[in-house]
UniProtKB/TrEMBL annotation:
This is Uncharacterized protein. InterPro entries: Quinoprotein_ADH-like_sf. Residues 1-24 form the signal peptide. PANTHER family: ENDOGLUCANASE, LIPOPROTEIN. Keywords: Signal. The lineage of its organism: Bacteria, Pseudomonadati, Pseudomonadota, Gammaproteobacteria, Alteromonadales.
Amino acid sequence: MSLNRHLFFIVMLWFCFPITTAIAQQGFGNTAKSSEPSEFGNETLEWRREYGSGEGLRTFSAMTIDHDDQSVILAGLSQMPEITKLFTRGGNPIEQLIVQKVDFFGNTLWIKPFSLSTTEPNRARSVSLMKDDSYLVSGYHGGLTSMQNYAVKIDEEGKELWKRRVGGVGDFVYYIKETPDNGFMAVGKKSYKGQKVSWLAKFNSDMRMIGESLYEDTAIGNLKFLEDSSFYSVAINYNPETGQKSLSLSKFSVTGEQQWQTFSMPNIELGQRRLQLSHVEYLDNHILVAGSAIDFSRGDKQNASMWLTKLNYKGEMLWSRTFEHDGEVGSFRYLAENNKGNTIAGAMRLQEAFGAEVETYFVTLSSEGVLLTKTFLGDDTISDIEFFDDGTVLITGERELNVKKYRSGRSYASSFSYVERKKLESGSK
């Protein structure tokens, strides 16, 4: 993980060792700038389901595939009257966290609401399949300073088994994962001495916290656990002495002791630009890491580049690709790789520097990071991308409708969510 300064630790058989870092070293491996798609591909739509248009708000923010039966578990929020049971004093429904299960063909098996708060909108942030075939959903309610995070465990039929508050008021939890020792790990941000710092917390099987650790000058991307509950972490480190950021991979023992840390750099001439991390995807034999490099000193234009790198589990860079979009801020989101390891799918999001206009693309890349296809999706917001075992890809997103702008500068838009399964077929240019 990018762990520059270890600020705080609680000793409970976990996270009991201080962590130090070294000066970032230049990475190695194959590096290249990307070009426009070298191949054209065909996308065959297998099915598409839309939710929320004309029936009340329904938005999905996370999903996972149960590969045993190829069903899909979606987590999000809803204001649909037939689902939502809570209402404000004015008679409007409160947005509730929902979990919906659909089969391989998109047919709804069940949909269930869950209330974290009876007075504020409830939202989901992640959902995952547990070893006992139940589902773990992380959600929250409240704003930036009043946010409260929760973990909800439900069975295969959507029945709530337990609900636990995670962290304190104002904390920000990115996701919660089950660990091989039947516990859990939360990754997020926590307030410390007036600033937000990275936060890792370990929980027992009943979701009771047994240890936590805070890290300054770091952006933790994701974790991968091994069978002995040791884990890897990819992150961005900030060096306050040089003012630069670098990419790191760290290995930790089950007790939270850092065993090693390596540094590398994407194929980007940084100059005044700083690295930003947008997505980390751990696969069996390698890791895909995506982000951007942005210069905030250029006035109305940010000198921004998107980058995508492939690391092995020693932290060695296998290749690095750069995607230039002058005057636009870009990032890859929700990368996934098929089980043959020859196709990478993801969402590319571009936004004008200091502007509001957003463009979203569904992209496919080769195993070497070469851009193959690029499909324009307007200003859709993609929530997740996953591959089925047969190589078809599942996408969930949201599209705005009927945007209304007011003289005050505020705008309002209705929207609907969609889930679609596509078959990808590539051909020569």
